[in-house]
Design brief:
The protein has five helices and ten strands, in the order αββαβαββββαβαββ. The protein is an alpha/beta fold. The N and C termini lie close together (11 Å). The structure holds guanosine-5',3'-tetraphosphate (G4P) and sodium ion (NA) (2 copies).
Length: 191
């Protein structure tokens, strides 16, 4: 998506460890007009997928997810993060390891927000190693619901997450796909 690639070129900075800092429009300050355009594009690409709910993980997935849900006309649910969980009877839970932060989190969604006939779209801000998406796939499996697709604002194609999703046979839409960081500039994947 050209408008997003332009914004990344303009406002993104590359930090050590192949981390793209985009905290002036996505990860701290949020540009609602851009989020609206991203949400519309996710909705356009998944318009015929029969989606009943959008799932994400707090916190940075919420802005794009709620806009996708708005344009699809369905609710958005964000999984909550916990250091560790007790009393989980009323929850679907999964473990998520963050390579970037080197911490383990449990994520959870209350059982009453997922129904067996749901078909969900998973949305996140970044697809890097794919652990957050894997956690939501684990929850979807526990809840016995269908996953229509995964939509991410920015994927780092050279990390494991892209392969993880496509190997699972799940349609993946990345609105910006980064092939590499070279000499302090972002190279986008061509297809
Ligand atoms: P994953 O999200 O694909 O599992 O990747 P990973 O474990 O590597 O990432 C851990 C956290 O770091 C995630 O945020 C992820 O969105 C974020 N992240 C990964 N790569 C980048 C990057 O290049 N730039 C930025 N800005 N973030 C990146 P999180 O822990 O879920 O936190 P939150 O921001 O959603 O609260
Ligand atoms: Na995230
Ligand atoms: Na993040």
């Amino acid at each position: 998506m050209k408008i997003l690639e332009d914004r990344i070129r303009q406002d993104g900075t590359i930090l050590p460890g192949n981390v793209l800092k985009v905290d002036n429009f996505l990860n701290h300050q949020v540009d609602p007009q851009l989020m609206d355009q991203l949400g519309a594009e996710f909705a356009r690409q998944f318009a015929d997928a029969g989606i009943t709910k959008v799932l994400t993980v707090e916190s940075s997935g919420i802005a794009p997810a709620v806009m996708a849900a708005l344009h699809l006309g369905v609710p958005m649910i964000f999984a909550r993060k916990h250091k560790s969980l007790t009393l989980t009877d009323h929850l679907y839970t999964a473990k998520v390891y963050s390579y970037t932060k080197q911490v383990n989190n449990d994520i959870s969604i209350d059982r009453r927000f997922l129904d067996p006939d749901d078909k969900v779209l998973i949305i996140d801000d970044f697809l890097a190693n794919g652990q957050a998406v894997q956690g939501l796939l684990d929850i979807a499996e526990s809840a016995n619901i269908k996953v229509a697709g995964v939509g991410v604002v920015i994927e780092k194609r050279f990390q494991k997450g892209h392969q993880l999703v496509t190997d699972a046979g799940i349609p993946l839409v990345a609105l910006a796909s980064i092939a590499a960081f070279e000499n302090g500039t972002v190279t986008f994947a061509q297809d």
